[in-house]
Protein 1
Amino acid sequence: MHSRKPFYLFVILLFITGIGTSVYRGLEHNIPFLPGEQVQSWAIDANITFSGSNNPAEVHFALPNDPAFDILVENTTSPGYGLTITEEENRKAIWSIRNASGPQSLFYRVTLVPTGKLDITTDEEPTDTEIYLWPATEKDAAEQIVELVWSRSATNLSFAKQLMQLINADNQSQNMSLLLSTNTSTKLFLQMLHTKGVPAVEVSALVLEDQRRRQQLSNYVQVYQDGVWHLFDVVNNKQGRDNNVVIWENDGGSVLDVIGGRNSQVKFSMLNDTRSALTTSIDMMRSDDALDFSLYQLPLEEQSLFKGILLIPIGVLVVVFLRVIVGIKTSGTFMPVLIAMAFLQTTLITGLIGFLLIVSFGLMIRSYLSTLNLLLISRISAVIIVVIFIIGLFTLVSFKLGLSEGLTVTFFPMIILAWTIERMSILWEEEGPKKVFVSGGGSLFVATIAYLAMSSTLIQHWVFNFLGIHLVILGTVLVMGQYTGYRLTELKRFKPLVGEK
Amino acid sequence: MNYAWPWELSRAGVLNMNRRNIRYIGPYNPRKFYKRVDDKLITKKLALANNIAVPDLIGVVSEQHNIEQIPAMVKGRSGFVIKPAKGSGGKGILVIIKVENDRYYKANGAEVTHNEIYRHVSNTLSGLFSLGGKPDVAIVEGLIEFDPIFNGISYEGVPDIRLIVFKGFPVMGMLRCSTAASDGKANLHQGAVGIGLDIATGKSLHAVQFDKPVEKHPDTHFPLSHVQVPHWETLLHTASSAYEMCELGYLGTDMVLDKNRGPLLLELNARPGLAIQIANGKGILPRLKHIESLKGPTMSVEERVAYAKKHFCDKPLF
């Protein structure tokens, strides 16, 4: 006996690869592990308006840039405008027109899906912040406050926190009131941070609320500390972010720049929607061109073909288990799998009745054929043709009777049925009807179990969406091929050998 | 409880199907030698070349148009057997025990018409009885004149002696007797009686039908507790030398006793069944392990038989 080690290593490798790739697919591409899962999505409309002045106009509009949301689909409506979308660090839509006159209206529509990654992390240290220089009137007041808070804080974060508290305090110092009389609280906060060279930028964000219209962006401040940008909502005295905040522009730049137009503004309206998690991830992968190892890139017809084919390993697994571990005898090794595939089309009860009808009719006709003394090949061929007649007859009769279930018998594999009839007929002649029922019953039992496994929506979801699962099945089949233990039926068969002690 | 615990069976040394396939048939029976036992025609020729007695060959039918020569072939014989060369599990064996004025009769007295014979042979040639449905040839053999010593313990059929030969050592044996239930066939799953035999003496140890212990033949009511198989020494030798002939380590040998010619080798089996353990009321695994653990020089047939007789003797379980 050569060593079994490479074999077990190979099987372990199969298991690890199979489970690993499945988990990767689930986490990386957000393919849900359970079928029928739903996710939220937000449809956001941005409406940009401005008045043209009979001159060329160019509109620069920042596009959402937030790891907490994935863009599922985006499109624009802008009749007469040329559009480019720059895919640089900060995504921007640039509309341009040679002659804009009168009120102009541009639409940008995006569907966002929350990813749950609320932290904004960065690998790059932000470049040195420009120290803010205060105007002479504010210099003393500002510096006093900043120095005081600076001395009482330890990190960028605690510094920012205390500054925000101070700005929003109920009884403000004279210095603070002075500063706030000329600055907005957000601007003041940012300037104070910059005084000490703390990396901070102003960002524009949209607060998502279902069925809101004519909303505007709010301004927040992001403060950098240890690779993470922390969000501060100074106006509402809040640190951190909720999952309904989309950061639209995060570089301190402007969201909307209109060259050659006046009175420009942007309004947002939004709608919350739930959709299938699976469809969402597929659309997402399609828009990212990440479908490389997915069957979803195939044409629909091939996809549905594969949905059937990929169930065969499950059926085979059931057959191997029931034969090797349980020890059920079937007529024809993989005949039950093919019958179970047919059951998927016919549903179980119709399938069972159809199968029994066809086989018993076939056996009757076969018993006549056996008196004709035919060669094997022509006898099997005759049985195949007769099976087709029977199927045709059943289909017609059930159609006339209005039983739509009966029409599905055409899904039975005819060659397999013919061989089943042939084998059972021989078995009947040689070993009597009892063996025929045992072997036929065993086959139908295995087919039913295989059908139940194959018709489970969970299993159908897994075998098609997580191809790694087939490696796990392969590994399991290989391991079962090494099983030298007793089969369940053998425990009964060999009972007499231990009973007498 | 009708089920045994797996560890009880394991303690009793019962060999099971999966272990037989993986641990014994896989490593000890090289695939390339299978045709020596799966094709009975090759077995027969090999046996003749090795001076092992077999039932005499009347003829071989390998083409459909040769089927009509069968009546001429068997002319003047009192009986004959038609079997597929690559059949398995006793399938497709037609036994004619009486030929009278060109009319053929089976053991149960039923007549078999020429047409039925043609159809049977035609089916055989098409591969109906062969493994995997491959085209086959039909062998026509002389009928075995079965030894009257077995009168009473078999019903409508020739009892045969199955010996499991492991690496050339006969390790377990049984006598298979047909019954009314088995329709003259000697296969245990069809209802034949299996009588476990002591390797040392050839005496009966235990008997079962349908996996249940029996003390008498169900049809003839012949007591089975004191059966002694004659020519036991020759049977052991024949079985043991089959190892050199076909080079399969885990082998089932089927032999019959002919009134005039003594033990004849009927066929060999590269996948012998497990029912022999039930017939013996004993697991075969300890004996297989015993043989596997043997070291030292290769033994001759005589040495192996002597070794088996010394180590594998049993007490009757009746």
Protein 2
Amino acid sequence: MTPLTPAVFHILLALAAGDRHGYGIMQDIAEHTNGALKMGAGTLYGTIQRLMDAGMVREVESPPPETLRDERRRHYRLTPAGRRALDAEVHRLEGLIRVARGVRGHSRVKG
Amino acid sequence: MKTADRAARLYTWLLRLYPETFYNQFARDMSADFRDGHAAARRDGLRTRLSFTARSYGDLVVSLLSQRLDTERFVIWRMSVLVALAIWAVAVGVASLEWSHGPASPWFLMQLGVAVTAGATLTIAIALRTHNPS
């Protein structure tokens, strides 16, 4: 499977925690990356549009009745296909980390 | 008018440059996001506010170009094919004029062959590449 781009991965990750509007997704991404990744609105909505076309994200008809509710904005939800893509990416990254740790441990023992 | 208002108004106006479908779907949210982000950055000082504004406008320009390219892909493909065909037609036209003055030299025939082959290759390459952008 093709690795997800950082923008796609972070958007899917933010939506895995629950329905969000665009600004909420941006705030989550900044928080998840300790401010290292600050996604602009153009990039965010362009990616959301592609994710909706791919069936990974859909717009929610009625906003969730929580603090994240904001009438001005559209809210988005992860679809089962989006969750599968996210799970597959997390699995791929875990495998990569395992390999990296193994290589580093091996080189330390040698050194 | 306050600087924040001017920045937001300009940002909102620039959103009109996006393709219509993208504008109708996301412009309202993008405008609201800019206003809220700008207000939050203001609380953190001038440097954060300037950084936010520069980042937002930069992102707008890049994503605008990307959206436009996606939307206009077929138009760009059609124009490219038309230009390649025009080059081809000029080559054939020049050749026919040359022929009307008498038998063509081998050197001219070779040049004509190269021009026609280049035109045909260019047309096919553009057609394949633009229809298969990945």
Protein 3
Amino acid sequence: MSKSRFVAATDLSTRFVDDPGLPDGLFVRGKANIDSYPTVGIVGSRYATPYGKKIARHLGRELSESGVIVVSGLARGIDGCAHEGVIAAQSDVEVAPPVAVVGGGLDVPYPKSNRELWEKVHECGVLISEYPDGTESTKMNFPKRNRIIAALSDVLVVIESTSKSGTNYTVREANKRGRSIMALPGPITSPQSEGTNKLLRDGCAPVLDVEDVLLAVSLERPDLPIARYARNSKGNADIDSLGDELASVFTAVDVTMSSLSTIATRAGINFAQTAICLEELCKRGYVQADGDGWIRA
Amino acid sequence: VLGAIPSASLTGIVGQPVRVEVHVSSGFPGFTIVGLPDAACRESRDRVRAAFLSSGLHWPMRRMTINLAPTSVKKGGAGLDLAIAVGLLVATDALKPDQIANAAFFGELGLDGSIRPIDGVLSLVDAAEADVVIVPPENVAEAELIGRHKVRSAATLSDLLLCLRGDAPWEFPDLDFRENTPQIAPADFVDVHGHEYARWALEIAAAGGHHCMMVGPPGSGKSMLARRLPSILPSLQHTEALETTRVHSVAGLLRGNERLITAPPFRAPHHTASAAAILGGGSAQIRPGDISLANNGVLFMDEFPEFSLHIVEALRQPLEDGLIRIARAVATVEFPARFQLIATMNPCPCGEGGLSGACRCSDSGRLRYSRRISGPILDRLDLRIYVDRTDPNALLAKPNGESSALIRERVVAARQVSTNRGLRCNAEMAGSVLDTFAPLSTRAKNLIVAKLEAGALSARGFVRIRRVARTIADLSGAPDVLSDEHVAAALSLRPDAQALRVAS
């Protein structure tokens, strides 16, 4: 494992110039020309729902393919998923590299389950930390790490956050720096969407599509061109082409995990029939099975 | 003077014929028992003497030796008391040999001369090499179950002496209640609010005899549902009933003239129970554990991951062979242990995992929890039933589900179909006969092939899916070929689903 370099913060990105309350220098592993791309921070809860994770991956991939750097914290949950999306996009030369800001030494992957992702980010992009090698990641470091993410992002997208999430700290820091903030709407019954839904109520722009983010980025940074606009939008399923029974079962499948019994009750048909409809929907890619339940794909 | 009385002692649940030989001779007065008696058996000496004196019988002041033949087998318990006493009566000429010809004796003596009930009469009588068996009054009904012997009984030693001499008639105890009708009505499915899915799945489990795992958050009703399973199981066949009664008798659970157990037993050992309590064992006398008491019934293991791992691993043999072999220094015994395993667990340590998404467990906590479940055991469970919390509306409404009796009718009909195939239940269907008994329709085949190709189904899972699909088809009265609907339903009760997912 290569040792990390210590560089002046302003050498890393001009976004750090005149920034209040940042360290002068940062530890860096890997390389990326951050200033030649627009940047979007994707942040969210560590205890993410399958919905949040899916959107984080989707946005990570689409943004990266559009030539927008995704900045995130490589934590469990939303952060990791966003970078998974970015890494999945790294086949093309035109795509933007991943940038990760972490809360510990750059040679101490945290959480351990993200070690592989950590190495991939190092290969394709850059890892940043204000802590020297060997420092263990502790929860206390995360809020400090979050201010660097906020400083580095032209637009901040909050995928999911509870009312007390550390993500709220990132939002405050981004606000302080006048960055534009966007949030993903979620079910009002989901605790993981409480924070984001409040942001939306308070006037923050909603993310319904990757294009929404790209538009915000181009308004924010007209000086930095976007390589290309994403081809496809949300990829919503075409309900009309399904038959009556399949459509009613598909409608009964939620964006959060549901058990077969719940789906059958909502659809109003028996368990065996529901099971076969789910298998069919699964085959056609409309839903997916995960553990004890089903969720929209 | 020599008397030899047939009796029997227990090894496991099998009776071993024992001949009690009594030798009375001149010499220094004394009383010895030889032939590997255990402590309780050796104490016979004092009980027999006291019983003799209390009954006003003459206690000979001579040298008396009791030999329990064959001498190589260890004899336990007080069940030989009566045979020893009768042997002494014969040896001292209080009884003539022809008065006890062809009779075997079983029973424990009280100091007052009363004849007390003993455990395992069913097995002991079965082993008796005699036409007439004399048992304690409380054990008469049980002894009658064998049906090969004339069963006689007396309440005290002096009564017995009179009857044997022909001075008093044998009293025939009331034999009206031969079957064990449960005193308390078992829990019924009619009281269950909602839970349509679990009802459906448990009906399949009952019809096919499938082992299953119920997963769900705490308080969702897993145990409540599992306790109702026996109410929809078919009654035991006569041979099964005899076998189950035998085990219960040996364990001392049949008391007070109890009869044949015809309802499938339900055993729910606590997770802190010792290995000997669950599997069977003990040092002086090897006793059947819960898995054998659940023979032909249900073994319910609530909070499965909390059971100690070596106990769970030891379930492999019983799950495979339907019996457990217990080897101790004293002896090696086999107990029947063909049970239907119903296990429950939470989705994660905090219990809020699974579908609600409110889990706050750490990754390492979840991992530890998942490691507590043995893969090979999980492999033997055919069904995985996710039990959701009941919808509040269903909880407040009047329960409107079917009664156990209705469900049971369908279960019995489905079991009959598998009996016609020569199987006890579909869960025991061997892989080699699957093509004969569970052929797949083209659409069903396609469905399974897709799963196999996607790596979502293992070869073992494939066999289990077909067994479960067979049961589902049997329940719906479908003919031979399994349709895609049956297979999809079986797949939805996914046995191969990952026990626990570690959040990424």
Protein 4
Amino acid sequence: MPSARRADLPQGTLDLLILQIVALGPIHGYAIAQRLQQISRDVVQVQQGSLYPALHRLENKGLLAAEWGPSETGRESKFYRLTAKGRAQLKADTEAWERLTGAIGLILRTAKETR
Amino acid sequence: MSWWARFTGRHRFEDELDRELRDHFDRLVAEHIRRGRPVDEARRAARLEFGGADQVKESCRDERGTRWAHDLAQDLRFAWRRLRAQPAASLAAVATLACGIGAAAASWSLVASVLVNPLPVADPDRLVVLGERDTGPGATGGLRYSKPYDVYRHVHESGAFPGLAAGGQVSRPVAIGGRTAEPAKVYFASHGFFDLLGISPGRGRDFSAEDDQRGAPLVVILSDHYRRRVFGDNGEVLGQRLMVAGVPATIVGIAPRGFRGLNLTDAPDLYMPLETVGRVTDPRANYFAEDLPTKDSPYSWLTLLARLEGDASAAQAAGRLNALGLARRSFELTDVQTAALPAAARMNVRQFARLLGATVGLLLLSGAFSVGMLLLVRAESRQDEFAMCLALGASRVRLARGVVLEGALLAMAGGLAAIPFTQWLFGAVRTFQLPGDVSIELLNLSVDVHSWMAVAAGGLGSALLMTFVAGAFGLPARRVSLLRSRSGATPRVTRRHARTALVVAQVAIALVLLAGAGLFARSLSAALAVNPGFDAQHLVTGRMALFDSGYSRPAADAFFDELRQRLAVNASVRAFSISASHGGMTPRGQLVVDGQPRRFPSMVYYMAVDDRYFSTIGLEVIQGRDFSRDDRADGPPVAIVSESLGRLLADGADPIGHRIGSPSERNTPRVVGVVPDIITDVTTLEPLVLYHPLIQRPAVAWRAVAIRPAGDPEAAIREVHATIRQMDARVPPPPLRTMEDGLAAQMGPQRFGATILGGLGGIAALLTLLGTYVVAATVAGARRREMGIRAALGARPRQLSGLVFAETARLAGLGIAAGLFLAWLGAGSIRPFLFRTPPLDQVTLGAVAGGMLLLALAVSLRPALSAARVNLVSVLRDE
């Protein structure tokens, strides 16, 4: 059962994940959700109720820019792309995340070894 | 995207959000179809997976950060619609606020331009005027600012001040474009005068060093008020010529609009270079104080102005200047703003400003109360609606915001409407004078930054007050119980205390303002009745200064003799007399009475009068004799005293035969007659006057003339002016007016007070009546059921209307009591402006209180009558 393998996203990480996905190239909202699910092998599933408010939040902050354009199905879709500000934010957030996870991993490993 | 773009692009946003979510949904459906589901099933699955689109949209809207603004805009639209639904009440509220705010803005401008920033010059604190303390016998101890030209030259040459300028004002006949010359006040200013003040002409140029030479072609700079008065608002005046005392001069500049000279009570019309003063005045007048041809002391006519250097204080600079020992004078330096308004006048103006401020504040308060009451009544009538909204889940904050916004909209509209009202007010008060002879017209009031700030503050303050009133008392406390009680039970007369307090406060305020107006009006009429039995209406007086026209004393005497002879045969002049005031003795100085030094409680004025003076002005000698031709210059010195002086000097006994004079006189004059007191100055009610024969007191070159016209005073004034012009065209015709006008002019502040307080009090009274009516009507409306039951139980209509009247009378009575208490508190602030009227004058207070009560009862007539006609059946049917 796939739902058993799902994990809740820690607070604030959704924005980081979206920025990382969008960094690969202009992309619409549906594809972002698909891509998150595929890459995480169905561990991360984002509901529309969180995805779109997050996209609008990032757009208002100027981290993402959006424009309407033709998609692979021939219909018009709203494509998001990273702005320069977004790229800088992504870099900073990624580094912070890696530092944090590294530190947490270190604590867990060290604590396990000294047990 | 900027916040503003997001705020304004709301419709596009909604449209795009809709398209974006639909796109997502369609892709989900397509995915399910791709996995082999039928279309209907695919759509159902997609819908399940997608969840509620509306919730997603709401969350997205929240993320935009513009929701509060949209809510606000929505509330504003709603408030606007509600205000529009009751146009009469809304307009009344706006008009009320406009009056209050406008009056506040206007009075603030007035106060600011007289007290806060009287002189629009750069860095006025560092600009000082050179003064000398008036000492010696009979001196006032005040500072004298006028200096002769040689002092200016000495100070200038000493180099004590790198920035020094001098100027003095002279009245000169000025003719423009072939018109008859009119006297104008010409200020002769040294080169660098404007520069020192840090102002440059509004148009044209400043005087150059070349202009300020004795032989230079004449140039003038017009004051802005003179340009507007003479040339109108339009028209090119630069380069035009005018004739100053018959000499052509070119207009080279116009002083900036706000600049009105250095003395607030005497603003110049024109400015000319100092060194050219000799070209337009008689050479004999000797403005430059050079090798004096007569024994007259040098003419003190210049004000010396200097800018303090560096950090030097005025006292330090004065010390350095006095160390130079220039002409053995000892100077004191006063800052230019203080010198602009004499100390006494400054105090009067300050008291007056306080009074005005209190008045305007009360009006604004009254306006805010009545608007608050309108909002309150309106909020009460919406109780059901509020209760319903609360029951449906609206937040109390949102409801309160609606009420607040209504108040804010009213305040804003009131503020906007206040601007034209303020401008109108400036026009209306233009002709008045402030205490200390400050002419409001010269203040050049306009809606400036100060008034804008006052308007904004007034609007904000009243909005807050209204909001507090309506918000605190208007919102329902219990929602469900209110809805539950709708059926049948008598609605409670809610928040009655709030309304009662508002009406009581309004009545009190209106009472105070109207009482103030009444006191001023009484004081005005008292001032006009100061000289009973004295025909002030048919007595024309004025002063003539021949010195400016180059007359020496003997020449002036000859001139006045000839004028008297010519007027003696003029049909429109019945009597003509000449007098001169020659100072007096202050209460600090001593006179000599029968060889003994003696002090008097108030100033003793010296008047030198000719032998026709008393008969001309219509004073009968009540004891002893009048002056006659037998009182010769070399004869025994004689004097006539005013009744009050006579009583004091002889301690109530007969003053005739006593001797009174100043200590410097070798031969003290003997009192030969007593005349009644005559009040020419409303601040001196018991004038102590010592009259001497003019012939025994060679006076200065200016004289006072008194004319008893044969018929129309105006015709006599024209004749006198024509005669003077025939005798010497260079002499500017003196300003002449009837003594009644003269007394009335001294009462300028009282006239201003009566008008302003009367006007504002009238507005406040109207507001109060409106408030009283609203309360009487709502209370009567809320008590309809009770009245119906009383009627059904047999109460007569008169008893029912009596209930309404009693309620009104109770409110008005409380308000009147509060108002009388306020009047008692404020009595001190109005006392200095009242003339022979006590600040708690019983007649005035009684009349105003009675009037308020009657009016309050009158406006409750309609609610009372409708209460009397109540019929229980129709009340129950309505419910």
